[in-house]
Specification:
Layout (H helix, E strand, L loop, with lengths): L8 E3 L16 E3 L2 E3 L3 E3 L8 H9 L14 H10 L5 E4 L3 H12 L6 E5 L6 H14 L4 E7 L2 H9 L4 E4 L9 H5 L7 H9 L5 E5 L6 H8 L4 E4 L13 E2 L2 E5 L4 H4 L9 E5 L5 H19 L12 E3 L3
Parallel strand pairs: 4-10, 5-6, 6-7, 7-8, 8-9, 9-10
Antiparallel strand pairs: 1-14, 2-3, 11-12, 12-13
């Protein structure tokens, strides 16, 4: 099939060689660090706050802090370094973020990871922001950029200096970009990842559209190195935000709930039942699920998932 998504494909098991699934290695490298699993919780206020970011960093998971509201990237990066933790922050486009880069330079605070994102990342404004970061903060910063939908977009961001590229426009559960604009990767997101993977020279992060832990294995099978998801932890009980009658509000970054403006809305708010899991509970569950994926792949490491066969459920 040329175009497909997560629900259109299933992976074919191979003979298991592990004595126990716990022996499987599902760690993933990003920059100079190794993390427990190749999943980053989406940098959304709906599912990530400062306290959660600190806990993730302490326990060996990767995070990207969101950039919304009055969030102070400089103060956050300084605090993380003072705690002996890595700093991973987000920039958009505009004077506010240019000034934050300049302030980081003045204070000699160099975050380990910087995420540069706009809705349509294949844009000159992203190229200029990456160049500004490199000029002020040097080559030691691991830059993640996005979002893109095509191999051409991915290659451009790599050429502009990104170390990792986020692939996915509009596939997220709380995103309405495709409905509002007609554009995006919704409905063919996994094939977009596969197409981009054939062109990549660096790290590819499959962003959005995941509903189950098994979708992580599918994304990796088709060429992703990492995945990003908010939905996989949307129902966890320890999030901030509104809770009523056993449900909480999960909202997209481009929703009115987040931006508090009715202009350029490309996200929605939905009610999700609150589970008994904390974020850490859910991440441990996902880790175990990935270990099982490795066992079904007939290997010892997550990379073996790339080598199995797959079956399309529709043609």
């Amino acid at each position: 099939m040329e175009f497909f998504d997560f629900n259109d494909v299933v992976l074919v098991p191979e003979k298991c060689i592990l004595k126990t699934r716990a022996d499987a290695n599902v760690e993933a490298r990003l920059g100079n660090r190794t993390f427990k699993i190749p999943l980053v919780i989406a940098n959304m206020p709906a599912v990530l706050n400062e306290e959660t970011a600190i806990e993730l960093a302490k326990k060996g998971y990767f995070y990207i802090m969101h950039r919304f509201g009055n969030f102070d990237n400089v103060a956050f990066a300084k605090k993380m370094h003072e705690m002996g933790l890595y700093a991973s922050i987000s920039f958009g486009i505009g004077q506010r973020f240019i000034e934050e880069v300049n302030k980081l330079n003045e204070l000699n605070i160099i975050p380990e990871y910087i995420n540069v994102e706009i809705a349509h990342g294949h844009a000159d404004s992203v190229r200029e922001m990456i160049a500004h970061i490199r000029n002020r903060l040097g080559d030691g910063v691991f830059i993640i950029a996005g979002n893109v939908a095509t191999p051409e977009g991915l290659v451009a961001l790599e050429d502009w200096g990104a170390d990792a590229v986020r692939v996915g426009i509009g596939p997220g559960f709380a995103c309405t970009t495709t409905y509002k604009t007609g554009f995006g990767t919704r409905g063919w997101h996994l094939s977009a990842v596969a197409k981009c993977a054939k062109a990549k020279r660096k790290v590819l992060i499959a962003d959005g559209g995941l509903k189950y832990s098994g979708d992580i294995a599918k994304a990796i099978h088709f060429g992703a190195d990492w995945v990003m998801s908010g939905y996989l932890v949307a129902d966890c009980k320890d999030h901030d935000g509104e809770q009523y009658n056993g449900q909480r509000t999960y909202y997209g970054n481009a929703s009115f709930q987040n931006t508090r403006t009715k202009s350029r809305v490309e996200g929605r708010s939905v009610q999700v039942p609150i589970s008994e899991d904390t974020v850490m509970d859910r991440l441990r569950e996902i880790q175990e699920d990935l270990e099982s994926s490795v066992s079904y792949a007939g290997g010892t490491k997550l990379e073996h998932v790339k080598k199995v066969k797959h079956v399309f459920l529709r043609t």
